[in-house]
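Residues determine shape. We examine one folded chain.
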Amino acid sequence: SPRQVRQMMRKNEGDLGFRTAHTVDLSGGGVRIRSWDRFAIGQEMMLVLKLDDEEIVTRAEVRHGYIDLADGVTQYFYGIMFKGISENDIDRIVKFVFLMMRKVRPV
């Protein structure tokens, strides 16, 4: 099942709260998400990544995106780069990705 990621957006110093999206791809440098919400390229946010039973919270920036209108349903896809993430959190993400890959492709 898709992993979930939540973003905390701030616009004009107003807190818009958390939105939920699904992770399409994850690496130590960033995440690609599928969302029902529209974001601006360059928009900064706080991300809460759920990795099984643990969470990683980091600042992030929307780097690129596109709209998918398949089957008359509008979904947004974004490439989001982590900003100021700790080496420890990067290691946790990379380990998580390798564990998921091993589950999909057993050795």
